[in-house]
Amino acid sequence: MFLQKPTSFLVAALCFCLLFTSLGPLARAQKKTAPVEATPPPVREEFKFGNVDLEILEQSELLDSKFERDGLVLHDEAANAYVRRIGQSLLPKVLELERISWRFRILRDPQPNAFALPNGSIYVTTGLIFLVDNESQLAAIIAHELTHVMRRHTYVQNRSNRKKYLTMNIMAAVGAYAPGGIVGAVITIVTTVAPFILMATVYGYSRDLEREADLKGVDMMISAEYSPEEMVHVMKLLDKDIEGENIRLFYNDHPSLDERIKYLSSYLGARADKVTHQMELNRERGAYFEIMEPAMRHNLQLSIMAGRFRSAVFHAQRLVDFHADSENLFWLAEAYRTLGPRSPQLNEKELTNSSKKDAAKKRLKRTLEEEENELLATPAGKDNWQRHQQKAEELYLRALNAENPFPAVHRGLGMLYEKLGRANDAASEYEKYIGLAPNAIDRERISRRIEALRRTQN
Amino acid sequence: MRLTNTAVGIRPRALIPALITGLILALAVLLPGFTSPIHAQFLHPKITSKETTVRTVVVLPAKVNVVRDSMKGPEGMVAESDELSMRVEKMIAEVLSKQKNVTTLSPPTPPTSPPDQGGAPENYSVADFQTKFDDLLPRIMKKRSDVKKGRFTMGDEVLNLNLDKNTDAIVFIRGEGKKLTSGKTAFTMLVGGMPAYLRLHIGIVDARNGDVLLYTDPIFGGDPTTAVDRLRKAMEKGFKKLPAAAAPH
Prior knowledge:
The structure holds 2 protein chains of 2 kinds. By secondary structure, chain A is mainly α. Chain A contains 21 helices and 3 strands.
């Protein structure tokens, strides 16, 4: 018989494997093109906790305290109270759920992201706060996350994963990111501390659970009188890739985002009972920026520190457009100064997947200084550098001439002049800074720089 | 057309002895190394030329994370990881003190006062430096030997930590490990796979200019939460090349 020969058996096995692997994507593609259902799945009111669920719950509590202890939680009372108010307004009034205590917090991370832990802790990052335009958009994200907790999605997904051996994917994710890495402190912690929670909360739940969270989120927004169409707008904002990063998180997974925009638009079309006037949205935007301004400035500092210079320029410009005071002008100047020889925007070619992969590899091979030096050796890099330093100087000087000049402007100017080789000017700007801010946290660092500059002059 | 192995020039039977020999050789080389600590150390030229001597250090909170690997996937061990982090931190201070006469000063304590009284920024600055090291670490790991060329630095921003004036260096500790459940251990023994292990990444950074003075990444096999002796041994070997400071009078 044909299969009795070992070689024939091998060929048969190969054919089976080929057929199997080619049918898989086909089946998935069919699933993708299936018509979008605009009806939310039925509500699960009761939930019985098992030992596995209680373990996840315990880990969530420990993660909460770890974020706090590691200095990742933003201590801006006004911003935290604002996020808390949005969260509370979205929650159904008579809702009482076992083992959930609602907490709304902001994490100091420039990567736009949000996630919920099953114990009721909802986290939004400063990067996300900066990306959204108004309260309704932030409410959209929070409503989505609240649904994950209310419908116990973390437990549901965990039980399902344990059955399906999806753990291989978790291990792949853990292997790819641990330890450290350039994905932000929050992800690093969740990755290495609680691998399952990472999968569900940061990379996203199953497609069905995400859809339920989106659609239920829209309902919650309508009940709380937020503009539901802002759910779609925020998805579009999240689709923007300023840094050309090759990091796939739930909130920047582009194919999924496209699909979500489609079914949300379809759902809203069916029940567009509230469409907000543009003027009302603008007013909302103004109020949002006013409350979140300190958190946004903090995020600029984090972005620059994390080497996300393009994001820093983009966001600082938005802040200056909203309110051109000395501090905001200073941050825009800082963003341009640190952008250095890089182009302010990535071109289409740089945003392709292969270019992003190459860039990610290069980022691991070079330090920021080496990247700058490499760019400075090119005519385009030199041109960018000159333009950005000039722009930064103009902005610093504008910040100095504005009302209540921000002391750190002198420090920024000092650093700019030091880089330009103007030692005397740099030292005198640094001295002005120390004079205006004698208790500054970086006093020691700046004093040493002054000493070094004065030494070179003598 | 019938496709046979001989048609493409591959004779599987001829490969089997070579594969078995290769496997045995690989096991012979890897296994003894893995059960006893493997350590690599890379020193900045300033240390090898004795231009800089590390006498006093501040050890920043360690971030060592372990997961429990069971047949149903990895599970977090948040509490055990925290405990291990503290143990590693303490042990490193002891090893540095006993073997290298290095004094450990207490790290800047995160303030407990409310943020409007200036509490938050200091807490942030420690967290931000930890993140900065996390950013630099994959680059160091990519080419560890470049520490010997003095290629890596965290910049003079380290001065913002406002440490004691006598501090020579700051110690950053990271680590990841895996503990296996009994079921998974049996499965690993039968089928193969990664055994339980702990790998540390220790960076010593100049407290004045941020240069990475030493990088070492000891690794050992065994349960990371209980193998205290192996952990100590791994650390002792990890700092072997670091020149000792003069003993205090």
